[in-house]
Inverse folding.
């Protein structure tokens, strides 16, 4: 090849690159030109450890917006979804981009508690209307609560606490062992469970911890087998939960030991759809259940759309849209009237597919029904069947 | 100047003719001054982040580009300094000079500790040892919940300020952060450049090119590498000390080895051994991550493709590659 040819080819690459770059810069400007529409930004995890959960969440909100004909309170809705890779730094960057560059009217999403905490100062400083769909760190309902940050989901305490109540009342006050993922959320779940359970007169035996991303639970399962507890309280999420339940079955422990867990341990879409039989007989407390009365129609629609019953994240995405819809309709679509929107949203409960949801005026935290689910066989395979409902569970909030 | 001579110069890290360099600096200074007029608050803050991370990548270039030492523990120096500054700011307030001082010192101390372990190794062993030492530091930050906030990281930090004796300047606005980051980036570049051009820098290149001959000439190779690590740690630390205040948050990801690997990718994209290429590589990487990811979930594929293409068609980085597109001087 001659030198001249090479240069021409290079020029071509350069020209192509420059065009692509210009297009990239130009796109937001074009988007900005569309007037009258209302922009919702969602940050969720589309790569990294929570990618599956993030896709479900995105599909949930898209599904709801499609049902509304992409229009709420007479305004066209534009949804912009960004990926935080489940990393707080990246989450902060994406929230800044949505607020500062895309000029969204509402920001929402977030799966990881760590991301939810990290973006708290950013959205507070920008005075952005924020709906945290799933990040459930207790602190956001307590010392890190913020005037315009709404959380239409549970706190870790709400699940750990109700599990403690249920265990002490219905399972046993002795022979309890806990095993949890050794990171912020796991510590909160187990800690809150133990606190309530002991306050109810229960006695906790051994407490085991496994690092996030544990592949071999063998040593811990041998420990469980030798202790022979009556039941265990456990918190794992995502692939950890899948491996834990599978290995429990491999060790033939799932027939002997009752497993009570946080909702994520038996998440319908993320865990049960994968482990199937290994989940049977398990118990969990969760703010979501595919068999809850409020979720019936949604569960069927979700099953038809994605071929699987909804888990917490798919439902959370849908609920986020429901809450945003209620909030906007109560101010006639005038998203700039933030104080009015807050006042009206807090005034009345919202009917969501989680169940009835009202907001705590102290911290904008949702007050929710918490379901006790048992995994039973059904026509669609093992399913989270509601066996009890704790109504209107409220986080202790700033006083805790 | 013939192509061969120029290649030789670049490989040795010697800068081009002074007059051209002054011209280039002038152009950059003018562009930097004009940027705040056209960029939004968000974009200014984004550029500040690029400059800060870029300064850390530049410090990595000292090791990789001049010492031939590929480190997978560089984020530890950057993130460790960031944590030190964030922790200190809680009780002492976030004064700029204090923060940069603490960050620089932390970066050097951590580089020294790393250096004790790694200074007699090279290539694969250097890579693995820096990775291991880095992960040890990361574990400490990750598990020392009381001080670092563990997996949740730290937030609620005071805003950055500069104590001028008579008055206290608030540096929390995007513009102020941008100016601060720009000054830091320039200082980092100037320090790195003088290090490279000083006898110690030439000796460092010597240890990369002809280790045996350098020992035979009486150079203490371990000591030279330690000096490079310290200089690199100081720059990375200074950059790290500003990082928590740009995002008002610092978390364990900033110390993890994946961030170190990201820095290496940024460096390769920008151009190894050019110093200023570090900023270009950082801008490209963060730009893709922030903008392309709005259009596709597979943005990492784009980063990967650019990385592969960079290595294949412009192995000396984007800056040099693009220059050669138009000048035609980059003939391999």
């Amino acid at each position: 090849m001659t030198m001249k040819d090479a240069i021409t080819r290079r020029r071509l690459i350069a020209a192509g690159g420059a065009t692509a770059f210009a297009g990239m810069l130009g796109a937001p400007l074009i988007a900005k030109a569309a007037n009258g529409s209302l922009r919702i930004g969602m940050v969720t995890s589309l790569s990294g450890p929570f990618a599956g959960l993030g896709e479900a969440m995105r599909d949930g909100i898209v599904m709801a917006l499609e049902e509304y004909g992409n229009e709420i309170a007479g305004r066209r809705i534009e949804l912009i979804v960004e990926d935080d890779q489940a990393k707080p730094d990246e989450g902060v960057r994406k929230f800044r981009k949505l607020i500062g560059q895309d000029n969204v009217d509402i920001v929402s999403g977030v799966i990881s508690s760590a991301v939810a905490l990290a973006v708290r100062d950013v959205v507070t400083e920008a005075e952005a209307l924020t709906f945290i769909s799933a990040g459930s760190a207790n602190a956001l309902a307590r010392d890190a609560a913020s005037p315009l940050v709404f959380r239409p989901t549970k706190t870790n305490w709400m699940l750990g606490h109700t599990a403690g109540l249920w265990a002490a009342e219905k399972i046993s006050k002795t022979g309890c062992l806990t095993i949890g993922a050794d990171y912020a959320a796991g510590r909160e779940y187990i800690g809150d469970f133990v606190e309530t359970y002991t306050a109810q007169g229960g006695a906790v035996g051994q407490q085991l911890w496994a690092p996030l991303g544990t592949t071999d639970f063998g040593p811990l399962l041998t420990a469980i087998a030798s202790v022979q507890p009556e039941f265990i309280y456990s918190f794992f999420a995502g692939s950890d939960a899948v491996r834990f339940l599978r290995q429990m079955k491999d060790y033939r422990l799932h027939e002997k030991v009752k497993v009570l867990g946080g909702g994520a341990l038996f998440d319908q879409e993320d865990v049960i759809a994968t482990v199937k039989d290994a989940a049977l007989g398990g118990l969990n407390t969760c703010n979501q259940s595919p068999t809850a009365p409020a979720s019936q129609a949604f569960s069927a629609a979700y099953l038809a759309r994605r071929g699987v019953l909804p888990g917490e994240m798919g439902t959370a995405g849908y609920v986020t849209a429901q809450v945003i819809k209620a909030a906007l309709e109560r101010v006639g679509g005038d998203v700039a009237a933030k104080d009015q929107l807050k006042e009206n949203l807090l005034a009345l409960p919202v009917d969501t597919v989680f169940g009835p949801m009202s907001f705590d005026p102290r911290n904008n935290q949702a007050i929710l029904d918490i379901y006790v689910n048992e995994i039973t066989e059904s026509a669609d395979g093992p399913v989270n069947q509601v066996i009890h409902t704790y109504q209107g569970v409220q986080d202790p909030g700033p006083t805790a | 100047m013939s192509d061969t001579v120029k290649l030789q110069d670049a490989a040795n890290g010697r800068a081009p003719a002074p007059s051209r360099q002054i011209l280039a600096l002038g152009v950059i200074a003018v562009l930097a001054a004009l940027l705040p007029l056209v960029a939004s608050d968000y974009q200014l803050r984004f550029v500040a982040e690029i400059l800060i991370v870029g300064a850390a990548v530049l410090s990595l270039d000292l090791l990789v580009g001049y010492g031939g030492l590929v480190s997978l523990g560089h984020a530890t120096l950057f993130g460790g300094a960031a944590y030190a500054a964030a922790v200190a700011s809680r009780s002492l307030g976030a004064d700029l000079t204090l923060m940069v001082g603490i960050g620089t010192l932390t970066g050097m101390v951590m580089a020294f500790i790393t250096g004790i372990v790694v200074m007699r190794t090279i290539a694969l062993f250097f890579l693995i040892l820096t990775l291991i030492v880095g992960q040890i530091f990361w574990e400490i930050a990750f598990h020392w919940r009381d001080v670092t906030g563990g997996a949740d990281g730290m937030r609620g930090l005071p805003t950055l300020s500069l104590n001028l004796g008579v008055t206290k300047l608030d540096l929390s606005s995007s513009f102020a952060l941008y100016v601060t980051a720009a000054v830091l980036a320039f200082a980092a570049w100037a320090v790195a450049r003088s290090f490279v051009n000083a006898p110690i820098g030439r000796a460092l290149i010597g240890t990369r090119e002809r280790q045996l001959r350098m020992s035979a000439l009486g150079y203490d190779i371990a000591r030279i590498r330690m000096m490079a690590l310290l200089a690199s740690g100081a720059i990375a630390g200074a950059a790290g000390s500003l990082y928590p205040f740009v995002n008002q948050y610092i978390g364990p990801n900033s110390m993890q080895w994946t961030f170190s690997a990201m820095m290496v990718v940024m460096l390769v994209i920008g151009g190894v051994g050019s110093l200023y290429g570090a900023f270009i590589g950082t801008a490209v990487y963060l730009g893709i991550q922030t903008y392309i990811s709005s259009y596709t979930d597979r943005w990492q594929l784009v980063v990967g493709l650019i990385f592969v293409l960079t290595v294949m068609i412009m192995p000396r980085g984007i800056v040099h590659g693009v220059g050669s597109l138009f000048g035609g001087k980059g003939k391999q």
Summary: Residues 1-7, 22-34 of chain A have pLDDT under 50 and may be disordered.
